[in-house]
Amino acid sequence: MGIALGGLLVPRSEPLRPDCPPMPLLSEDVTTDWLSRAGGAIAVPIPPKRLERQQAPPCVPPPGEQEELNGGCWSEMRMKPPCGQFYEHAGKCYVPIRETPRPPTSVQP
Fold it and tell me: Per DSSP, what are the bridge partners of residue 31?
């Protein structure tokens, strides 16, 4: 058992799973305010364009409380920054709205 675990702790020059694609980095046009808050909390800005699978306008009007920002629909969170894992815009925290799946157009046999 100790020998098997020892083999896992040895640093490798190649990835363990070569079929796994590398994690994409933020594009150059997205600026992130990494240490803007007291205590060094991370702030993630709303991206400059709609996210993949994010609801496109028209957004649900009140009482749905969705807002159109940068070509996508967003819902404002009740929490105040720092937003943690959520997105921040104009001093408010937002979560993206997932697009509504299209209903099937054909009948399965």
Answer: none
